[in-house]
Structure formats: structure tokens, C-alpha cells
Amino acid sequence: MNKIFCIIGKSSSGKDSVMNELIKDEELSGIKSVITCTTRPKRKNETQGKEYYFLTEEEYQKLKNENKIIEERNYNTVQGLWRYFLADTNQFDFEKNSYIIVETLEGFMALKKAFGVDKIYGIYIFVEDDIRLLRAIEREKKQENPDYKELCRRFLADCEDFSKEKLKEAKINVKIENISLQDTVNAVKSDILKIMSK
User: Where does the record place the Guanylate kinase-like domain (predicted)?
Assistant: First the structure.
């Protein structure tokens, strides 16, 4: 049965790096990547249509008015309201494909509600907080206008968003510690191939 594989993790856990490696893997070429949308500003190293579709607030409102938002999260950041969302653009055909997407815990749960529990498979990538914070600082240093205030807000919000209670409630299928990127990619790939072969 085809599924949506959700790569879930806190900020700077390595989930985007894992996703980027997986979508390049020949053995997983039958899985289509799903790109979500955001109204936040594009970072220096990001590309439109790769990490996200960077849309304006007006574009978001148009999709919302057309009832095309499958799931969304809104964050009041130090730079204002940022939206992250998945729009229904008829991109899902479970008869033909499985899909892979980077999601938040809330997004994962919304997808289970929208498509059904049997169609969604959650893979939680985690890293110790000290390593995660150092990664986040290094990434932020590379930005044209580093925003350490926002980095701290995200880090603290993750503690609440990924509490033990919320992780338990979400019923994520598998949890993988990201000590080494290649080992993590291999573990996620192995898990996906095992599920797809059932």
C-alpha cells in the first residue's frame, strides 16, 4: 500500500538533510517528494520549490478561500506571522505513488486526519538539544541577517511542541537518532523500503 512518509523533527535535527539525501537515492526513485508552502522569508541557502514554495500572504489567503489548505501551522515570530502549510493541488495519487514530506508533529497529525492513519507513516529524527542548538547557531551565522532571537524562540517552542506527551499522543511509527547523517539516512531508507515491501 502506498503511503506518505513523514520525516518529523525539531528545528536543526537534520530532517531536511535526511530528506535531501533520500530524494536523491535511486532505490527510492518511486517515492515522490512533497513540498510544503511557507510565507516566511527564504533563507540564503534555500531554493524556491526545493525546501518550500515561498508564497506571499495574499497567495496563502487565496488558497485558503478556495479551501485548498490540507494542514497549516502559524507561528508568531519576532519578524511577524509565518505560515507553513500543505496545499491540495491534486498532487496525491495513492494508486500510483508513495510520497515523502518533512513535517511538524502537528502537520503529521493533521495528515493522519486528512488521509487516514493507514496512509501516513511517521519517522521522527531526533538529536540531543546541545548538538541541535550548536547546529542552529552555525546555520544562522551563515545568513545575511542572522536572527538569533528567532532561533531562540524556535528552540524553546520545540520543547513544548515536541513534549513527551505530544510525541506519545502522535503515535509516530519509528524514532531514529541522528548521530551521523549517513547512518540516519540508511536507517530511514531501510525502514521505508521495509514498509513499501509489505
Answer: 2-193
Contact 70, 111 (CB under 8 A): yes
For the segment 9-59, what is each residue's pLDDT rounded down to a tens digit?
999 999 999 999 999 999 998 899 998 899 999 988 899 988 889 999 999
Supply 73's cell numbers. Answer: 501551522
Contact 49, 35 (CB under 8 A): yes
Amino acid sitting at position 78: V
Q: What is the C-alpha to C-alpha distance for residues 10 and 143, in angstroms, rounded to an integer?
A: 20
Residues 151, 153, 159, 162, CA torsion sign:
negative
DSSP code of 44? T
CA distances, 43 to each of 118, 137, 147 (Å):
35, 14, 11
Among candidate residues 63, 69, 72, 40, the one with its CA nearest the CA of residue 53: 40
Q: What is the pTM of this model?
A: 0.85
**In angstroms, rounded to a whole number, what is the distance separating the alpha carbons of residues 133 and 148?**
11
CATH number of 4-33+97-197: 3.40.50.300
Compute and round to an integer the Cα radius of gyration of the chain.
16
AA letter at 135: R
Q: Parse the chain into domains and list their residue ranges.
A: 4-33+97-197, 35-90
Q: Show Cβ contacts of residue 25 under 8 Å, excluding neighbours closer than 6 positions.
A: 185, 189
Q: If one looks up domain 35-90 in CATH, what number appears?
A: 3.30.63.10
